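Notebook, p. 212. Picked up where the previous page left off. The plan for this session was modest: take the two constructs that came back from the sequencing core last week, fold each one, and keep the raw output in the notebook itself so nobody has to go hunting through shared drives later. Recording the first one now, exactly as returned: residue sequence, then the structure token string.
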Amino acid sequence: MKHFIIYTIFALLIGCYPKPGKDLLTNISTLPSFRIISLDSSKCVNTDDIPTGKPILFMYFSPDCDICQQETEDIIQHLDELEHTDIYMIANESAEASRNFCQTFCLDTVKNIFIGTDYDYSFFKVYSPRGIPFLAIYDSNRNLKKIYREKTPASFIVKALHSHNKRYN
């Protein structure tokens, strides 16, 4: 009988323990508020000010990361399919490293890409990415569509942008 009571209490405690990531998904199910500063510090974007009407892709990256560079190359190859998507590439590295990255990939010539730094770690605090690249996709109404926590083919990103289902990796 003693063991039965202990097992029952243990089972109840496990059942009451919150599932990992559930709070995160609740907090980011609609576009949360955070700030990104442009590489030249001339513009600060607050996500509260991003208009509805276009899907949004956030890519958290490191300019020195080979996988992030490959991800960027793949996205560039699919820009025609992403032309109606606002893309925000966010680094927490130095602005100099991010500027070099931007020049290497000619990203400053792409009108729907904004590259900035997570200067006050507000993106990091909201999403708590465990690795890079980290991608968050929102639909045109600012609702979360998909999260990718690793290198992802751009074709998957395009598919997620056009799907009507929410899925999380």
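Okay, moving on. Second construct, recorded in the same format:
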Amino acid sequence: MIGLGPKPAVDETPAGLVLDCHTRIRTFSGLAVTLATAAAPDAELADAAARVHRYFTQALPLHVADEEQSLAPRLRRYAPETMAALADMEREHREHERLLGGLVTAWAAIGDDPGRRTASAEAASRLRAELERHLAAEEGLVVPALARLPADEARAILEEMRARRRR
């Protein structure tokens, strides 16, 4: 079966939640590659395609909003050394949207008809590589800076992140 594995415990801090999201991004980008290449029954392909489609159209946009609306403004204020990394992060988010365009359409088609597996392994592999580079860059500078935010700012970030998911 094309699966994801168990869900690990989450560190309830801004950095912990971001890293948890990064783990899921890696998981689902890997599943996208598997989906493009795996020999599996149609029902499993359709299920995997639906999960990948749902993740990249619903969950990933929430993560991007977390970073751009909650983290970046505070890091610009309290960790000015992250300015260039934040600009790169936001530019790369737009690039990822373009990469996802065709893949999202292909995953929806597979979910409807697994015989229409049109998502190429090349496109899925490119997405995974781009995301991995992006995540590693964030984890090198942006995530460590989150630990240095004042406690009240960290609490506000957590509340904003939770509120986004309640909508």
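Notes on construct two before I forget. Residues 68 and 90 are 7 Å apart (CA to CA).
Flagging for discussion at group meeting.
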